[in-house]
Design goal:
Oligomer: single chain
Distance between the termini: 116 Å
Length: 288
């Protein structure tokens, strides 16, 4: 029996809140990625890890906020708690791999393509692993073509966002990129949901797992608290808000090899002859 699927049980409330969470996580993650390109090698891993956690938490929260409005007529929906939070770990780890590649190799060429692909696959993996955590009296089936389109959207959105992070053009540039990223991630989510069809079993067997209400508190309190803390870090970092790359030596930028500054050697060449002449002149009367 075909189940009636409704992804907008609360109207536009859940899509708008989900979009906001995706934009918030994307904005913080992109600013942290940008900041990592403006600091020395010792601080870079910390900023990249913070950016990975922000983007992963943002898209994970976006997914399950949107799923609060997802219902199937004729059967209750429950969620497996372990698999639900495993999808969060997958999102953070795979997004982190992509961000670290771009953070150390630069947002261009092969590094950008590889990082964007891995990050996009992480977003898609989080989505479908989160869908697999659902438990209901029925069977989930997906349209292969639509699933492929959703994965392509995720990869394209991730690549564009990482490219924007590598431009280092200031705070407003990253805000615009996060809005586009949030729209693309939300579009990927609802494209993936459009590929879903539910076939009900019609049995009276109870489903197992956590209810949406029991997952709502940790889902909102945990990742949202982390995103707020990450936002505080961004707000109180003036270099991060202004996005000024001038304070960073060229040697510390990814993809540019370190070299010995020329100014120091020129300084020595300029004053060495003068010191030699003065030194000899001071010793000439003593030799006489």
């Amino acid at each position: 029996m075909q189940g009636t699927v409704d992804g907008f049980s609360y109207g536009l409330v859940t899509p708008l809140v989900a979009y906001f969470m995706a934009c918030l996580g994307g904005a913080l993650g992109l600013r942290c990625t940008t900041r990592s390109m403006l600091v020395s090698q010792s601080w870079r891993p910390g900023w990249l890890a913070l950016g990975s956690a922000a983007i992963g938490s943002g898209i994970w929260t976006m997914h399950f906020v949107a799923m609060m409005g997802f219902t199937v007529r004729g059967t209750p929906i429950h969620y497996d708690k372990a698999m639900t939070f495993a999808s969060l770990a997958v999102a953070i780890i795979m997004v982190g791999v992509g961000i670290f590649i771009v953070g150390y190799k630069g947002a261009r060429g092969t590094a950008l393509f590889t990082g964007g692909t891995i990050t996009g696959l992480g977003i898609a993996s989080m989505h479908y692993l989160g869908m697999a955590s659902m438990s209901l009296d029925g069977k989930l089936e997906y349209n292969t073509v639509t699933v492929g389109i959703s994965v392509a959207i995720a990869m394209g959105a991730a690549t564009a966002a990482l490219w924007a992070a590598g431009q280092v053009r200031g705070f407003l540039w990253s805000v615009g990129a996060s809005l586009v990223m949030g729209l693309a991630v939300s579009g990927m989510h609802y494209t993936g949901m459009a590929a879903l069809s539910v076939h009900l079993h019609g049995t009276a067997e109870p489903t197992t797992g956590e209810s949406p209400a029991s997952l709502l508190a940790p889902m909102l309190i945990g990742p949202l608290a982390f995103l707020l803390l990450a936002g505080v870090v961004v707000m109180f970092d003036p270099l991060m808000v202004m996005g000024k790359p001038a304070v960073v030596p060229v040697e510390h930028k990814p993809g540019i090899p370190a070299h010995t500054p020329v100014r120091h050697s020129a300084h020595r060449l300029r004053f060495r002859p003068r010191r030699t002449v003065e030194h000899r002149a001071s010793r000439t009367p003593q030799n006489r």
